[in-house]
Amino acid sequence: MKRIFQIVFILLLFPVTILSQQLRTSSKSVLSSGRWFKIAVVNDGIYRIDFSTLRDKGLINPAEPNIFCNNTGQLSYWNSSTFPDDLKEISIYLNKGSDGIFNEGDYLLFYAKGTHRWVYNAATGQYDFLRHNYSDTAFYFITSGILPGKRIQPEVVPPQQSGYTSDESDALYYHEVESENLIKSGREWYEPVSPAKTVDLKPGFTGVNASVKISYNIRVVARAANQTSFTFYDGGSQVKNIPVTGVDLFNTTGMYAQISDSSGSFTTGSATPSFGIKFNNNGDPAAQGWIDYVRLRARVANTFAGSFRTYNDAYSVAPGRVTSFIISSPGVDPVVWDVTDQDNVKQVAWSRTGDNISFKTSNDSLRVFAAFIPANASSPLIRNSPVPNQDLHGSPSADMVIITHPLFKSYARKLADMHAA
Q: 153-154 and 346-348 as β-strands: parallel, antiparallel, unpaired?
């Protein structure tokens, strides 16, 4: 028995050791020294931190702040995928006032993303939504240094004339409420719905181009003895009826509920549409229905009215293309950043003609731009106590890693001692 145990033990631990050697590139963790504070972010946006906040938190040198993260969304389930090696510094903007020194009355701005992701697939021209199954909050880390850190630099303007003009963007929306796990197991959660009420979907689309169809992807679930359905509406008009087949309610080892997917496109009659989805129980009061998700994509005009907004146009992407982007912004002069690479945000210089602002950029791949007013930037939640220094990269190699809640630390120690003997 002991011999079998040793063989299994080696098979389990050998890949972990090899994997750690392949992935480890940093010899020291950035958190190993200095004074660090943790920043929590839920939504994509521009965030503002005042100098006074950094001073009150006890940053060692608040005049030279630096922000780090490795927020790439949910990590892959596959060990063969690439992973962030350590926290990376991101570009930030310092408003230094009239004296040119970052001090009282000044503030910093940075672009941050939440945990969920819309990912553009260049091969299909479609956007895939990747939901983080384990966290709705992303974390950034702020510290300070002696020398200036990474700052937002101007975007390089291509010398060529633009060959394409973009005055529209892809508007993306998802509805996914994670409130019920049907079989009390696994990572799939759903939103229970009642046949007596329509679930309202308000994506906030404005300036929709009615000549371009809105695409949708919907997944619904039902548990009933007979067929039920869900109806998807654009305003008061039916877009799609989604049937869901019944299941055997008395089979304790079979299908608990049936999943039904639907995708397609339709033309809306409104520049600011709203949608809804309703469960139809087919006269069975015992039938149960759930929504997994609803995802929509529309074409909307590039406009700015003062609130943070992003712009991404898949139509503008082409090899060697230079695009002129136009945003209607009457009476408002926004700051525009290129946030395609969240670690290396760039400042975009624009010019105004009447109510429109415009700028030129290369478009070999999809670019994402953010427009905002600094005074309207959100303030992130910053933990009051500093992050304890830690140096995982500087730790010696391990044959086994035991992860445990503090309540079970003594038992984890016994397990480690048993294997070390």
A: parallel
Q: Which CA distances in Å does 325 have to 39, 212, 332, 360, 368?
A: 33, 19, 17, 6, 11
Give the pLDDT band (50/70/90) at residue 416: confident
Beta pairing class for 93-95 and 138-144: unpaired
Residue 311 pairs in a beta bridge with 369
- Kindly report the backbone phi and psi dihedral angles of residue 172, in degrees, each rounded to the nearest multiple of 5, phi listed first: -120, 140
C-beta of residue 92 within 8 angstroms of C-beta of residue 108 = yes
Rounded (10°) CA dihedral 396, 397, 401, 404? 10
Q: Which residue has the tokens 């409420």?
A: 177
Does the pTM of the predicted model rise above 0.85? yes
Identity of the amino acid at 106: D
Q: How many CA atoms lie within 13 A of 81 on its CB side?
A: 8
Residue 414: in which H helix or E strand, if any?
helix 409-420
The span from the CA of 411 to the CA of 403, in Å, is 11
